[in-house]
Amino acid sequence: LAKTTQPISMDSYEGQEVNITCSHNNIATNDYITWYQQFPSQGPRFIIQGYKTKVTNEVASLFIPADRKSSTLSLPRVSLSDTAVYYCLVGDWVGNKLTFGGGTRVLVKP
Amino acid sequence: EAGVTQFPSHSVIEKGQTVTLRCDPISGHDNLYWYRRVMGKEIKFLLHFVKESKQDESGMPNNRFLAERTGGTYSTLKVQPAELEDSGVYFCASSHREENTGELFFGEGSRLTVL
Q1: What is the reported pLDDT for B2?
Q2: Poorest-pLDDT segment among A22-36, A84-98, B38-52, B78-92
Q3: Phi-psi region for residue B81, left (φ > 0), alpha (ψ -120 to 50) or beta?
Q4: What residues of chain B lie within 8 A of the CB of A96, using their CB?
Q5: Contact present, B32 and B73 (Cβ < 8 Å)
């Protein structure tokens, strides 16, 4: 499984855009990049997934460069309720076996 | 539609006792998973059911842990006897049978405290 590296924590303010970059230098051809969000006292929640280029949904955007060795999760105009831990996961999802790293703790301040 | 539900939300037991955690997956989801995070560590995979069959139990730490999914609906995870290092949060997740997309639906977790 490809190892991922992401910042331990990030602070932001309401209304700002938050960008979290994840490194996955040994990503395999069949691997997808998936991001989960976890609020305190809750289970992780799938937010976005991509293979290459850019993916956007109602929650976030995911930017993946051509070499796929990194990816950036972009949260537009964050609010206090976006305070959470964000996990970057990489895998081919055979059997849906997820490997969570330490995640990035995002704190949104007023 | 109801999400993945877990019971109890929090259990406090003494070392050597037994605890059984229950998970009700989303209706129609054949895949059911157990994960856990212990004492500040990362969330780790424990095992995977497809209906009532154990597909992958490579993450089960030892034989004190027993997972069942009789009838392919809800699942239980029993810890017997519990040890201090078993303290943590146990998450259950489910997904549809044919989808290996990396998208799992997690419950809120069952917090286990072993004293």
Answers
A1: 82
A2: A84-98
A3: beta
A4: 31, 33, 48, 95, 99-102, 104
A5: no
Measured between alpha carbons, how far is B20 from A87 in angstroms, rounded to an integer? 29
pLDDT, tens digit, 9 for 90 and up, residues A54-107? 999 999 999 999 999 999 999 999 999 999 999 999 988 776 788 898 999 999
With beta carbons under 8 A apart, name residues in chain B contacting A41: 108-109
Question: 3-state DSSP call for residue B79?
Answer: strand
CB neighbourhood size of B57 (10 A): 14
CB atoms within 10 A of CB A104: 21
Is residue B16 within 8 A of residue B81, CB to CB? The reply is yes
Q: How far is CA B17 from the centre of its chain?
A: 18
User: From CA A34, how far away is CA A90, in angstroms rounded?
Assistant: 6
The b-or-e profile of A59-86 (16+ CB within 10 A means b, else e) is ebbbbbeeebebbebbbeebeeebbbbb
B102, A96: Cβ pair inside 8 Å?
A: yes
Number of Cβ within 10 Å of residue A110's Cβ equals 7
The pLDDT assigned to A2 comes to 65
Q: Are B56 and A43 in contact (CB < 8 Å)?
A: no
Structure tokens at B61: 């730490």
As a whole-number percent, the residues of chain B with pLDDT over 90 amount to 84
C-alpha distance from A55 to closest chain B C-alpha (Å)? 15
Candidates A44, A93, A97; nearest CB to B45: A97
Angle at the Cα of B89 (from A6 to A96), degrees rounded to 5?
Answer: 60
